[in-house]
Amino acid sequence: MKKRLLTFLSSVFLATTAFATEFKDFAQTEFDSLMQQGKPVLVHIHANWCPTCKRQLSVLEPTLKDDKFANLTALRVDYDTQDDVLKAFKVNRQSTLIMFDQGKEVRRVIAETHADKLVQFITLP
Q1: Contact by Cβ (8 Å): 43, 12
Q2: What's in the keyword line of the UniProt record (predicted)?
Q3: pLDDT tens-digit map of 63-77
Q4: Measured distance CA(98)–CA(95) in Å, rounded
């Protein structure tokens, strides 16, 4: 009985974590494909040395594991190395978050760290 319960709980855990949204490194081809499909996309302009970026991630990473964000793709742009992407998005500061839906930008925020506002930011109607 204990073995069955353990097996069941393990499969539930694996099933829920398999669909959890996590940040992926930004790739232009993937972004373009998601835009063409009209999928919701969160782009985080991130710098490893940025305390605001780290605070944003501390809220966003666990939040994105919620099932209601299963269809959201989260992409991380490296502020220090991906200058071409920064120019394309017209971004000049790290800790910028941009939400896309239906192939277009729907909102943008810079340096937001309040948990409730970040959750509201990534929640689409």
Answers
A1: no
A2: Disulfide bond, Electron transport, Redox-active center, Signal, Transport
A3: 999 999 999 999 999
A4: 10
